[in-house]
Amino acid sequence: MNSARILASLIPAFLALFAVALSNLPVSFSGGLLPPPLLGLAVIYFWTLLRRDLVPPVLVLVVGLFEDFLSGGQPGLWAVGYLVAYALTDRQRDAFAGLSSWGVVVGFSIVIFATSSVVYLFGALVYWRLAPVQPLLIQTIVTIIFYPLMAVVLGLVHHRFVGASRSDD
């Protein structure tokens, strides 16, 4: 395996961790009115559809724990959510990948709504109370709105850096 191929295989991991860090910066373009999108989850979804060989479950766990750490949430809360998103995306990979560009966004919407539901229920079990649904729902919608832009950027990265190292799944 050459060094360019090794570097290309690390790009999804780096992008997922970078996306989590970016979405947890203490900067708000909406003046604090909207929560930040879950950019790390968008990266996991994209690469699971395109190159699941580059997104092992342990990476998804690490990215989810990184989200928990940076967001100040209960450790394991988003890690579980990210693993659920990964499992659902992987299970429906052929169906989602075969969709048109907007169909992929619909697939992402299904995955993130399922993920948010699991995170909400898991959080209710951890904290022994039901939190308001609105903040998580708004964050889910904001993430869906950001996904097409993320997909374009990630698609460019894929074609420029990772596509040449394509391996059989």
Describe the structure.
By secondary structure, this protein is mainly α. The chain contains 7 helices and no strands. It has helices at 3-23, 39-50, 57-71, 77-91, 93-97, 101-127, 134-162. α1 runs antiparallel to α2 (39-50), α3 (57-71) runs antiparallel to α4 and α6 crosses α7. It is globular and about 50 Å long. The mean pLDDT is 92.
Which properties best describe this structure?
mainly alpha; 0% strand; 169 residues
**How many helices does DSSP assign?**
7
The biggest beta sheet is recorded as:
none
**Which residues form runs of ≥5 with pLDDT under 50?**
none
Tally of extended strands? 0
Mean pLDDT: 92
Separation of the first and last Cα atoms: 16 Å
Rg over CA atoms, rounded to whole Å, is 16 Å
Topology as H/E string? HHHHHHH
In one word, what is the shape? globular
Structural class per helix/strand content?
A: mainly alpha
Helix content: over 70%
Q: Please indicate the percent range of residues in DSSP E strands (runs of 2 or more).
A: under 5%
Task: Describe the secondary structure blueprint for this structure.
Layout: H1 3-23, H2 39-50, H3 57-71, H4 77-91, H5 93-97, H6 101-127, H7 134-162
Helix pairs in contact: 1-2, 1-3, 2-4, 2-7, 3-4, 4-6, 6-7
